[in-house]
Specification:
There is one protein chain. The chain has a single domain, classed as Sandwich (Jelly Rolls). It contains no helices and nine strands. The strands form two sheets. The protein has a five-stranded antiparallel sheet with strand order 1-2-9-4-7, with no helix packed on it. Strands 3-8-5-6 form a four-stranded antiparallel sheet, with no helix packed on it.
C-alpha cells in the first residue's frame, strides 16, 4: 500500500511483518488468516466486526482468521505483525 514501508520475515507456514508509515493510510475492509500485532509507536484505528478501537504504543491486538476488518493507520505508526498464513505477502 502506498505510504507504508514493510520488511518481511518468511517462515515455513507463517510470516512476520515489520511495518511503518510516514503518512495516514486507509486499509479497506478485508479478511485473511489470523493476525497478531504489537504497536511499536504511533496509533491505529482498527475496526473489527463493525467495532472501532484505537491502539497505541505498547498495545497489541488479535484478529481471528476470516474476520472482516479495516484500519486507519496514522502517520508515524510502526508495528510488528505475525500472520498465521504462509503467503499473506510476497517478498519484493
Amino acid at each position: 500500500m502506498s505510504g507504508l514501508t514493510a520488511y518481511l520475515l518468511q517462515g515455513a507456514g507463517q510470516q512476520v511483518l515489520f511495518m511503518e508509515s510516514d503518512h495516514d493510510v486507509e486499509v479497506p475492509l478485508h479478511a485473511h488468516g489470523s493476525q497478531w500485532s504489537v504497536v511499536l509507536k504511533g496509533r491505529i484505528d482498527l475496526t473489527v466486526d463493525g467495532v472501532t478501537r484505537t491502539y497505541g504504543q505498547g498495545e497489541d491486538f488479535f484478529v481471528l482468521r476470516g474476520v472482516q476488518h479495516a484500519a486507519r493507520i496514522h502517520a508515524g505508526y510502526a508495528d510488528i505483525t505475525f500472520f498465521d498464513e504462509k503467503s499473506r505477502y510476497k517478498a519484493k
